[in-house]
């Protein structure tokens, strides 16, 4: 085997320029794959995290059926007790109570329907990005203080600004009249049109008073220390909820099926693009090896004449391709890894992508994420693909006859 | 005894509508240790006979025995194995592997045979001394003269300890002095190791080194004389 490896290595460099040209294509393709895959690997977690920090959380406890049809009456009773139990059992978790309802808001100029979220401001500061997106005024303070923060477009539609008052009206859970006057203390802008046009936030105490829901919340959001622990805590919380048969624990994928679908759709199109790239390169490798086999027909004839079995020539061609594949894989992974590593530190600016990116939970800079999988998967596929396609030129050697092969020019 | 026995060998080639006999019912026995020269005009069937005996080409009919092994009728892979274990080849064009050094070319056959690395090195060193190539082991074929390349080819042919060496016009590309040196080497190997030699050639110089002379015309053995 060592003799075959030596012969393969020497043969590979018999035509240095051709080998380097093929290797160059492999290295370019591999480094491009590494860069693009690490970029995707970095984009998805950011997309998920940002989306979860805006819309939901990693886990959510709510009443059965709430996800399909969110209604005030599908509420969690005695929420403080439930939250205390979870916090006592799992102090490492962030437990965030939230409620949602609809109100008609009227300013001096206009009336607009709005989604109103009841939140615990202190906890919301840790779990949501909205407190950090305040562009005018300040975020909510705890307590029943009739304060409201509005999305930027909602504030524009209502023609209010910080310091103005809104009269709000709606229905309580029991069908009663929910009404009050809220003072605008802050305006936020997330860059997500729908959110900025429809959403407002008030303190949980104010929400519970307005909607006559004492110690009741629509849902409890929960964040684990890391995304990898979400499944574990979902099982743990589900076990804890056994005494509360009407409550269920959902993970982020159930809460935001759109994220998973979006990622899958993006991955599908990316895989097609990668497949085309890989195909072009491995066809180049096949062409190189086919030329090498044709050029070395005489050499193969000599080897057959002095006692090589045809199968040895077959493996010889595959070993040469494997060598080329390994060099291309290592250099491509190294080059792509260095470039991706640099951008994982400084980020890649997306000029003009701010608003569009925000719709998908992506900021104005994206950061490639390097891991053994994201760096190696592309180059390994190219290497394996190259060896597989070189079966064809290798197969050609099986048909060689010593005499006619030795007579070839 | 590892005699070479050919019985009723026929090999034809198509040339337009004509059927040309490369071998026309050739029967022949070469005893172990014989040094035989095969001569005749171009197209007489010398190389065709050599290729048939060496299992490089399949005759249309007839049988070839190398020792107790019938080489005709074997698969490509089995024929390769017989060549590896029993037959050495020396070609007119040397036919060395260009990317390997002298030592690697000689060791290549032993690697195919599965000889251990230390044994390979030892035998290689001995053979290099025997064919007068000591000191040139790290050179590539392109860095050697024609005579030196042919010596490497001979070294490669004998290193596998064959019972038979088939040489096709081994002196055709060599000057007379180098040819004589090569033929001396053949004679020496024949005497020392008892290797059977069958040499196809036009070169009259070769006749002096061989006790048996087979003359072929149109694919037939015309004369077969021993001196």
UniProtKB/TrEMBL annotation, chain A:
It comes from the Bacteria. Keywords: Cell membrane, Membrane, Transmembrane, Transmembrane helix. InterPro entries: ABC3_permease_C, Lipoprotein-release_system, MacB_PCD. Residues 272-402 form the ABC3 transporter permease C-terminal domain. It is found in: Cell membrane. The chain crosses the membrane at residues 20-39, 271-292, 373-395. Pfam families: FtsX (PF02687), MacB_PCD (PF12704). Its main location: membrane. Residues 19-238 form the MacB-like periplasmic core domain. It is a multi-pass membrane protein. Belongs to the ABC-4 integral membrane protein family. LolC/E subfamily. This is ABC transporter permease. The lineage of its organism: Bacteria, Pseudomonadati, Pseudomonadota, Gammaproteobacteria, Alteromonadales.
From TrEMBL, chain B:
GO terms for molecular function: ATP binding. Keywords: ATP-binding, Nucleotide-binding, Transport. It holds the Pfam family ABC_tran. Residues 4-227 form the ABC transporter domain. PROSITE patterns: ABC_TRANSPORTER_1, ABC_TRANSPORTER_2. Gene3D superfamilies: P-loop containing nucleotide triphosphate hydrolases. InterPro entries: AAA+_ATPase, ABC_transporter-like_ATP-bd, ABC_transporter-like_CS, ABC_transpr_LolD-like, MacB-like_ATP-bd, P-loop_NTPase. This is ABC transporter ATP-binding protein.
């Amino acid at each position: 085997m060592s003799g075959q490896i030596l012969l393969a290595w020497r043969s590979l460099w018999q035509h240095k320029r051709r080998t380097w040209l093929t290797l160059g294509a492999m290295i370019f393709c591999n480094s491009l794959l590494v860069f693009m895959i690490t970029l995707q690997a970095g984009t998805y977690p950011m997309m998920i995290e940002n989306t979860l920090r805006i819309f939901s959380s990693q886990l959510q406890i709510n009443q059965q059926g709430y996800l399909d049809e969110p209604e005030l009456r599908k509420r969690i009773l005695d929420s403080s007790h439930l939250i205390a139990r979870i916090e006592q059992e799992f102090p490492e978790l962030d437990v965030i109570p939230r409620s949602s309802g609809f109100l008609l808001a009227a300013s001096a100029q206009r009336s607009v329907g709005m989604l109103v979220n009841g939140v615990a401001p202190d906890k919301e500061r840790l779990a949501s990005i909205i407190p950090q997106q305040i562009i005018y005024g300040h975020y909510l303070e705890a307590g029943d203080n009739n304060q409201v923060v509005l999305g930027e477009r909602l504030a524009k539609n209502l023609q209010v600004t910080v310091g103005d008052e809104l009269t709000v009206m709606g229905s309580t859970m029991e069908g009663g009249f929910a009404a009050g006057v809220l003072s605008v203390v802050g305006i936020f802008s997330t860059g997500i049109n729908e959110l900025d046009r429809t959403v407002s936030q008030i303190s949980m105490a104010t929400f519970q008073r307005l909607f006559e829901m004492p110690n009741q919340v629509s849902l409890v959001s929960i964040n684990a220390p890391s995304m990898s622990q979400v499944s574990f805590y979902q099982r743990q919380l589900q076990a804890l909820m056994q005494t509360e048969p009407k409550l269920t624990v959902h993970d982020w994928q159930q809460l935001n099926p759109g994220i998973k679908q979006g990622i899958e759709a993006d991955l599908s199109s990316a895989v097609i693009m990668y497949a085309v790239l890989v195909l072009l390169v491995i066809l180049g490798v096949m062409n190189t090896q086919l030329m090498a086999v044709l050029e070395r027909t005489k050499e193969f004839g000599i080897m057959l004449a002095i006692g090589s079995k045809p199968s040895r020539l077959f493996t010889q061609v595959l070993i040469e391709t494997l060598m080329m594949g390994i060099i291309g894989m290592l250099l491509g992974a190294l080059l792509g890894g260095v470039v991706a590593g640099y951008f994982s530190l400084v980020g890649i600016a997306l000029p003009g992508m701010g608003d569009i990116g925000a719709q998908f939970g992506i900021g104005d800079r994206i950061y490639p994420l390097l891991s053994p999988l994201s760096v190696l998967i592309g180059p390994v596929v190219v290497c394996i693909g190259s060896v597989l396609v070189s079966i064809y030129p290798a197969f050609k050697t099986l048909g060689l006859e010593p005499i006619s092969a030795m007579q070839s020019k | 005894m590892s005699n070479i026995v050919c019985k009723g060998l026929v090999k034809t080639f198509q040339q337009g509508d004509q059927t040309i006999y490369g071998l026309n019912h050739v029967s022949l026995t070469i005893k172990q240790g014989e040094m035989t020269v095969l001569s005749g005009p171009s197209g007489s069937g010398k190389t065709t006979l050599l290729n048939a005996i060496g299992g490089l080409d399949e005759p249309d009919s007839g049988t070839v025995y190398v020792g107790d092994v019938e080489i005709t009728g074997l698969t490509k892979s089995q024929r390769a194995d017989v060549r590896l274990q029993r037959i050495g080849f020396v070609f007119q064009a040397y036919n060395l592997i260009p990317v390997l050094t002298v030592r690697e070319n000689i060791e290549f056959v032993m690697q195919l045979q599965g000889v251990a690395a230390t044994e390979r090195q030892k035998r290689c060193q001995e053979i290099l001394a025997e064919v007068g190539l000591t000191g040139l082991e790290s050179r590539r074929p392109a860095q050697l003269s024609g005579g030196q390349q042919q010596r490497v080819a001979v070294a490669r042919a004998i290193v596998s300890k064959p019972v038979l060496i088939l040489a096709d016009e081994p002196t055709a590309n060599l000057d007379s002095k180098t040819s004589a040196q090569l033929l001396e080497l053949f004679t020496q190997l024949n005497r020392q190791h008892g290797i059977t030699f069958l040499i196809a050639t036009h070169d009259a110089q070769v006749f002096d080194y061989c006790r048996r002379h087979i003359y072929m015309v149109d694919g037939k053995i015309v004369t077969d004389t021993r001196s």
